[in-house]
C-alpha cells in the first residue's frame, strides 16, 4: 500500500464488516477507519471487534475521509446520500458504493453531482481475504483514486474493473450473490451425507474441505473445470452416477435460471430506486 487514506464506512452491516475485517488482516490500520450507523449498540460491537472509530453521525463520519464507502441497503441509500451531500460537496472525497443495482449517475445526483464515484460489487468472503469484486469508475475518478480503491479491494481478494457499468448486473449475479449459491450446495451435501448416517460435524468438515479443495485446484490447474470434473469420473464409477443425476435433473438450466433471476433483480432495483425521492 503506497498511501494511507482515511476511509469511512456509512453502514456497519455484513458487507462493511467483511471488508473492514479483511482490510485489517491485510495491512490497513484501524486508526484510519471510521464507521457510522444508526444503532449505537451495534457500532460499539464493531468498535470492540475491530478497534475502528465509530459514530452515529453520518455527516461527521463522512467528513473524516478521503474515501467514503456507502455500505447501506439500496432502499435507504437516497436518504443517506442526500443527508451527506453538503459535506461531500465541500470535502470532495472519493465516493465508493457497494450497493447492488444503484447506478453511478443516480448516486451522483443524490450526492449533489460531479463527484468521483466508484461502484464496487464485492462479496462476503472478503472477510477471509478471499473476496471477489467487480469495479466501475465514473468519469470524474482520477488514476490515483482508482489505485486507492483497487488497493483496498485487492487487499481482500480479487478486484477486476469493468468498463461498461451494465456489466455490474452480471458481476452481482455471479460473485456478489455467488457465495450464497455455494453455501446452499454445502447445506444440501451436508444434509444428504447426514441422512446416510455420517455425523453432522464430520459431514460438514468433509463437504467444506471438498469445496475449498476443488476451488483451489480449479484456480491453480491448467485444465478447465470440465476436464477436472472428468478426472474425478472413473468410467462406470460412482461420480459418473452423481454427475449424470445432476445433468438429467437439469442443474445447468437451473443455475442459468437462478443467475438470470439475480441479474434481472439487479436491473429492476436500478430502475425502481432511480426514481426514489
Ligand atoms: N451482503 C452481501 O453479500 C453483499 C451486499 N452488498 C451490498 O452491500 C450493502 C449493505 O448490505 P449488507 O451489509 O448485507 O446489509 P446489512 O443490513 O447487513 O447492513 C446495513 C447497514 O446499514 C446501516 N444503516 C441503516 N440505515 C442507515 C443510515 N440511515 N445511515 C447509516 N447506516 C445505516 C445498518 O445499521 P444498523 O447496524 O444500525 O442496523 C447496517 O449496519 C447493500 O447495498 C448490498 O446491496 C454487496 C455485495 C454483497
Ligand atoms: O442480495 C443482495 O442484494 C446483495 C447483493 C449481492 C449480494 N447480496
TrEMBL record:
Domain Pyrroline-5-carboxylate reductase catalytic N-terminal: 6-101
TM stretches of this protein: none
Assigned EC number: 1.5.1.2
InterPro entries cross-referenced by the UniProt entry: 6-PGluconate_DH-like_C_sf (IPR008927), NAD(P)-bd_dom_sf (IPR036291), P5C_Rdtase_cat_N (IPR028939), P5CR_dimer (IPR029036), Pyrroline-COOH_reductase (IPR000304)
Domain (Pyrroline-5-carboxylate reductase dimerisation): residue spans on this chain: 165-267
Presence of the UniProt keyword NADP in the record: yes
Keyword tRNA-binding carried by entry: no
Catalytic reaction annotation: L-proline + NAD(+) = (S)-1-pyrroline-5-carboxylate + NADH + 2 H(+); L-proline + NADP(+) = (S)-1-pyrroline-5-carboxylate + NADPH + 2 H(+)
Superkingdom: Bacteria
Subcellular location: Cytoplasm
Molecular function (Gene Ontology), one example: pyrroline-5-carboxylate reductase activity
Main location: cytoplasm
Keywords for this protein: Amino-acid biosynthesis, Cytoplasm, NADP, Oxidoreductase, Proline biosynthesis
Pathway(s) the chain acts in: Amino-acid biosynthesis; L-proline biosynthesis; L-proline from L-glutamate 5-semialdehyde: step 1/1
Function: Catalyzes the reduction of 1-pyrroline-5-carboxylate (PCA) to L-proline.
Family, similarity comment: Belongs to the pyrroline-5-carboxylate reductase family.
Protein name, as recorded: Pyrroline-5-carboxylate reductase
Organism: Marinobacter koreensis
